[in-house]
Amino acid sequence: MKVLQIGLGPIGMAISRLLMRKPGWEIVAAVDTDVVKQGRDLGDVIGLESPVGLDICSEIPPLDPDDVDLAFLTTVSTFTEVLPTLHTLARGGIHVIASTEELFYPHHRYPQQTQELDTIAKQHGASILGTGINPGFVMDTLALLLTGVCQDVARIAVTRVVNAAGRRPSLQKQIGVGMSPEAFAQAVEQQRVGLVGPTDSLAFLADVLKWKMDGFKERLVPVLTHKPLQAAHGQIESGQVCGVRHLIKGISNGKEVISFDLRVYLGAEQTRDTIYIEGTPTLESTLKSPDLEDVAAAGLLVNMGPLVYQARPGLLTMIDLPLPHYQR
Ligand SMILES: NC(=O)c1ccc[n+]([C@@H]2O[C@H](COP(=O)([O-])OP(=O)(O)OC[C@H]3O[C@@H](n4cnc5c(N)ncnc54)[C@H](OP(=O)(O)O)[C@@H]3O)[C@@H](O)[C@H]2O)c1
């Protein structure tokens, strides 16, 4: 499978490293807007011992659909920001898997642009998927899969506890690490902090389960550290924000039917994902892994590669594809 890699931050690098050691994959071009990476050998940038003979470009090179089978787009979180790139790739007939959170389920937030992108992708035979771990897997695809054994489902609740220590600088920034409580409150008002995607997971679940929602309530609570902690950009002090608790409730017919409790902060203990489904039968499943984050995101995106390549054209969601599974 011939790959175009766009974006070489921690996720793009993890994907590239994985592809380099998997048989049957070849990176034919790599692009990044960071001038520090441009012109350097891909192997050097992703931390391999020897060069791979591929220089990182500043923009997508002219490519024939025969030159490339699939693009991994791992750049930014917002749908509108990746839209021009998606239009270019779709018009070139290139299939895409993106880690863009808002591309996981853009239908409710950007209905018109979603429809337009879907039409262009279909016209040019390109399949496009936005996925990841959160959104993309734990709070939506996996929760939905578990409902597969239920006769009735009354409520879904997901609790996710993530230790943000040692994680991507971009994630630590998103959760307000190092801010004062006052600066955090202001950033919440200006929508500059908080995790991107939980409301998209909620909309996805509601739509697939055909739950008509009255709306949702969202609340961001800062988690403050009581001791100095090491963050990606240096040390933070006692009393500063070390992460966030992001609470979301989805209401249908006046009842809470979906709730997400996401706790992402430096030093979080007992990291886990618990999916609780109230129904017939009621069931609860807990996943424990220190790596159900970026390592897993790279794994999922790559494992979805062959599935997206073989899928029908259009803008797809995880429900349109076969079950994600490990691919050798
Ligand atoms: N759904 C999930 O579970 C999940 C998991 C992990 C990551 N993500 C998301 O995936 C994205 C990538 O993650 P990351 O941590 O690797 O991000 P990152 O650290 O911000 O790195 C992104 C890289 O892409 C480059 N870039 C930005 N716009 C570009 C463009 N138009 N063309 C080419 N390169 C471009 C950036 O360059 P500059 O530095 O010059 O901007 C940077 O080098 C983020 O939005 C992240 O939130 C989602």
TrEMBL record:
UniProt-listed SUPFAM superfamilies: NAD(P)-binding Rossmann-fold domains (SSF51735)
2,4-diaminopentanoate dehydrogenase C-terminal domain sequence ranges: 137-325
Task: Show the Pfam families listed in the entry.
Answer: DAP_DH_C (PF19328)
What the entry lists under InterPro entries is as follows: DAP_DH_C (IPR045760), NAD(P)-bd_dom_sf (IPR036291)
UniProt protein name? 2,4-diaminopentanoate dehydrogenase C-terminal domain-containing protein
Species annotation: Candidatus Entotheonella gemina
